[in-house]
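G., the chain you wanted modeled:
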Amino acid sequence: MAVVHWPVELHHGQVGLRPLKASDGAEWSAARQRNISWLRPWDATQPPGADDGARTFRAMARDWNRQARYGRMLPFVITYAGAAGAGSRAKRPLVGQLTVSGITYGSARWANLGYWIDEQYAGRGIVPTAVALAADHCWFTLGLHRIEVAIRPENKASLRVVEKLGFRYEGERPRFLHIDGEWRDHRIFALNVEEVGPGLVARLT
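Predicted structure as tokens:
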């Protein structure tokens, strides 16, 4: 059985990852509201007939942290020391979210990774650093073998992230995820631990 490392905080330079907490609700909701038009084209939606039911942010955060303690996912918020009002690490505001999901052990040992960033902080290298931190943690602490990222072909900003980090393009999956109200095609990018040497943070620096 895998050893679970949660909660955990990761930092490199001005960028940090910390667990999403139930108390983040107001700040998270304000960021999402502020970025509705920026994020809507890339947001996951429920397909017709889905019966998952609506739930509060607090319930979602508690569920995700419970899954994290079982080693199934890593629900992080992204923090940035250069954000307005940033102080000590403990008080840095969230500027986005990064989630490692679908963690699988056994003979597979892989996971997929997704993220979003507040538009006002886009283009500062925050997301590549956050992805590098999370991926290195998955490879070198959790012992995973493969990290996968699925990106819509139209999402040029996310495509630049995986290009910068050297993720390998593996092809397109038609109608792969339900995004912005429709089943959307996605491009699949991946890296195995043997391909990253000392890690992606080292690759950035």
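The beta strands are 10-12, 15-19, 74-80, 94-104, 110-117, 146-151, 168-179, 182-192.

Shout if anything looks off.
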